[in-house]
Design goal:
single chain; 119 residues; alpha+beta; Arc Repressor Mutant, subunit A; 5 helices; 46% helix
Length: 119
């Protein structure tokens, strides 16, 4: 059985206007909220932390012991983070390896740059 994955036209983390921007479009507000929702779970925050410190792409099977969660649960959280544009996924045979999308995380950090938007 072949399973197709949903492809997003624009990953939410690809946008994210600073909160102090003169105005924020409805689309930017919605996509920014999607990123916050993806990070709104403590397990997902831990996954981002683990991947950010790994220095390499990590298999889901390597994350389950650290998180104390079952593999399907970890995969569910990884999918949420991937759909938000915060992670990158690389297929190696039957295994999927994940790493943080450093460009997206750097862009996300600009949301809170309260001084940079006014300069």
């Amino acid at each position: 059985m072949v399973r197709e994955l949903d492809v997003l036209d624009r990953a939410p983390a690809a946008c994210c206007a600073p909160l102090v921007a003169p105005s924020m479009s409805e689309e930017d507000a919605v996509t920014t909220a999607q990123v916050f929702r993806a990070l709104g779970d403590p397990h997902r925050v831990r996954i981002v932390n683990l991947l950010a410190n790994a220095g390499r792409a990590v298999c889901v099977c390597d994350l389950t012991p650290s998180l104390g969660l079952a593999q399907p649960t970890v995969s569910h959280h990884l999918k949420k983070l991937l759909n938000a544009g915060l992670l990158e996924r690389e297929q190696r045979g039957v295994w999927a390896y994940y790493s943080v999308n450093r460009v997206a995380l750097a862009r996300l950090a600009t949301i809170f740059d309260l001084d940079g938007a006014r300069a």
